[in-house]
Amino acid sequence: MEIKPLSLKKLTLLTPADRIPKMKIARQFKKLHLRTRVIQKIEEIPAEEFNKIFPSVHEKYLFLKTLDESKFDQFSFYYILVYEGSQLAGAAPCFTIDYSLDTSIKGPLRQFSNAIKKVFPRLFSIKALVCGIPMGQGQMGIMSGSQPVLEAIQRRMESLSRKIHAPIIAFKDFDPSYDNLFNPLLKNGFLKIDSLPMTRLELNFSDFEDYLKTLSSATRYDFRRKLKKASSVKIESSIKSSLDESTLNEVYSLYLRAVETHEMGFEIVPKEFFRLISKNMPQETKFFLWRINGTLAAFVFCLVSEGVLLDYYLGFDYTLAHEYHLYFVKFKEVFNWCLDHGIKTYEMGATGYEPKRRLGFNFVPVYLYVKSRYTILRPGLKVLSALLKFENFDPELKRWKKSEK
């Protein structure tokens, strides 16, 4: 796709209240000679050029390439690139989704909404263009302290959302390090909403016993009791960077069971993702597998790089998992693997907060920045976001939010 300069026409005011800020932004763009480009395949830009500006995280070029190739039914992917002259100054992965407004709801209300959706499948859905990735924390590549680059990304998102008929644009799950960059968005119609926090454990321990000493006596006793129960059966464990077809089928079956048990689901990963991630990122990909009497009882898919292990997806044969407390078996073995391989940070992602709190994980806040393109709908969006806050349906999350105040 040809790179085209940002035109002042694209920066034309939609409402009188925005006219002065946009004039300032237009002058900044002109001064910096910023141009934007939208591509739909990450391979349309060289990996070296993209990774040079993108943060050093798990989900960079090769991860995004895997998303492109995995044929997600739920999402269409875009990449907004910003150039200053010939130099890449900003890179923002984006995706479209028909977002279900009942995503955060749990319990009887969720059962009620699910019943309604069987008759009216799209009743609670609204199309959104989102900056970030469907899974994990939001990241973007941007010149340090360059507010005009973010504004260029935002304007291109608004232009693209009009083209694809998406009334909502959003920046998904960005941590507080982005606050200064994103705060000006709040003056331009965006709401800042608490998202599901990530969870993180710093591994400053000599061994597992040293770690156990940091837990409460009740948690420590409960943990030992569960591990003792697990030791009553032979559990065979293995670690692989890629899976043969038979094992992949077993893993994916357990993954789908896990999806079915989570009321607060967001993405459903195609089987092809698990196959391609091993091909594209063989050094970073780890599958931890546990078998009981030859049956795959549990798995964890992890990404590992630069001293960080990210526990991404897991699945259980729940009959065996509950009887032998495989969640805790899984945690101990992954924990020990991290210590043996010099991993300093163990991240588990969002949801399932109660056991993670007891295991000593810290909650890392992340935020959604959301805007309706239609000014008339913004008050309603504000009310709806307050009613459907994730913490309203997760007691452990609500307790954490109160403790942070």
Detailed description of the structure:
With 405 residues, the chain is α+β, with helices and mostly antiparallel strands. The protein has 15 helices and 16 strands. The chain has helices spanning 19-32, 47-53, 61-69, 108-119, 147-163, 179-182, 208-212, 217-230, 245-261, 271-280, 318-324, 326-340, 353-358, 378-387, 395-404, and strands spanning 4-5, 34-39, 76-84, 87-100, 125-131, 141-142, 168-174, 191-194, 198-202, 235-240, 285-292, 295-305, 308-316, 345-347, 362-364, 367-372. The strands form two sheets. Strands 1, 2, 3, 4, 5, 6, 7, 8 and 16 form a nine-stranded mixed β-sheet that branches. A seven-stranded mixed β-sheet has the order 10-11-12-13-14-9-15, sandwiched between helices. Strand 12 and strand 13 (308-316) form a beta hairpin. The chain is globular. It starts with a strand and ends with a helix.
Alpha carbon gyration radius = 23 Å
Terminal CA distance: 48 Å
Give me the secondary-structure category.
alpha+beta
Q: Count of helical segments? A: 15
The biggest beta sheet reads: 9 strands, mixed
Strand elements, count: 16
The chain-level mean pLDDT equals 85
**What share of the residues does DSSP label as strand, in percent?**
25-35%
Shape: globular
Helical content class: 25-40%
